[in-house]
């Protein structure tokens, strides 16, 4: 059963839906609502369990998240959108593209990858999920996830940004985080989806991203028929937060191509 997602909205024009990273809510896009309001109609949902969106009782699955998003677009009477996501949001965007290619008119993939988890990565996700369920606390995310989210430059030169991200992670709902980890661990490879994507695409990478490799970025860029890659210097896995001006500038170039 789908759930009704809460969302934030600003601006007018081409509808752009941005899906948040793990383990953050749609609040991560606050700066984008300010910087992109003159360019597009920006819609940033809270995926199930995050923000004020209910978690529901469905088994963890990317398909469930895709169904939630399709329902939101139906409720907003949006037939086609530019769809983007950061990290986990990118996974959801690619799975949505698999199911509803006719509803996507442009694609933004930021700090994400199209390949499925290998056995080691999936086991690590499941271990974190178990720790979240056992402790009923977000502390396992601080111990296992936070250190890889931000680039070295951000951690050293922008301590306020690092503190804000850590605080947001500490506020993450443990049950929703565990659910998301299970869903990500079982996700399918999406390279075939990207090869069939007949839309302008943007791949955003962080120069200091500890989680996404150059090979991951190249695999997506090579698979997509019409992709441009933007690497943001001195930024890690959270480019939209670490350097929003550069991130939003890249998104503007895609919107101009759609």
TrEMBL record:
Entry-linked SUPFAM superfamilies? alpha/beta-Hydrolases (SSF53474)
Molecular-function GO terms, alphabetical: hydrolase activity
| Hydrolase listed as a keyword | yes
The alphabetized UniProt keywords are: Hydrolase
The family database entries (InterPro entries) matched by this protein are listed as:
AB_hydrolase_1 (IPR000073), AB_hydrolase_fold (IPR029058), AB_hydrolase_sf (IPR050266)
Q: Which Gene3D superfamilies match?
A: alpha/beta hydrolase
Sequence ranges assigned to domain AB hydrolase-1 in this UniProt record: 15-244
Superkingdom to which the source organism belongs? Bacteria
This protein is called what? Alpha/beta hydrolase
């Amino acid at each position: 059963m789908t759930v009704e997602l809460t969302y934030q909205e600003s601006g007018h024009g081409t509808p752009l839906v941005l899906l948040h990273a793990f383990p953050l809510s749609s609040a991560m896009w606050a700066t984008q609502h300010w910087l992109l309001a003159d360019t597009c109609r920006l819609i940033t949902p809270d995926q199930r369990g995050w923000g004020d969106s209910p978690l529901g009782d469905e088994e963890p699955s990317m398909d469930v998240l895709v169904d939630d998003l399709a329902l939101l677009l139906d409720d907003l009477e949006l037939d086609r959108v530019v769809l983007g996501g950061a990290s986990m949001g990118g996974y959801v965007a690619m799975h949505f593209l698999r199911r509803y290619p006719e509803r996507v008119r442009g694609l933004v993939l930021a700090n994400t990858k199209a390949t499925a988890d290998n056995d080691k990565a999936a086991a690590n996700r499941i271990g974190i999920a178990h720790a979240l369920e056992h402790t009923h606390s977000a502390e396992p995310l601080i111990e296992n996830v936070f250190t890889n989210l931000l680039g070295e430059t951000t951690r050293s030169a922008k301590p306020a940004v690092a503190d804000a991200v850590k605080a947001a992670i500490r506020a993450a709902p443990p049950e929703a985080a565990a659910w998301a980890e299970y869903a990500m661990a079982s996700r399918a490879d999406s390279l075939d989806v990207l090869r069939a994507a007949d839309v302008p695409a943007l791949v955003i990478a962080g120069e200091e991203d500890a989680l996404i490799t150059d090979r991951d970025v190249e695999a997506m860029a090579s698979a997509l028929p019409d992709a441009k890659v933007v690497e943001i210097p001195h930024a890690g896995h959270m480019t939209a937060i670490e350097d929003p001006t550069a991130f939003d500038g890249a998104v503007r170039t895609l919107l101009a191509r759609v």
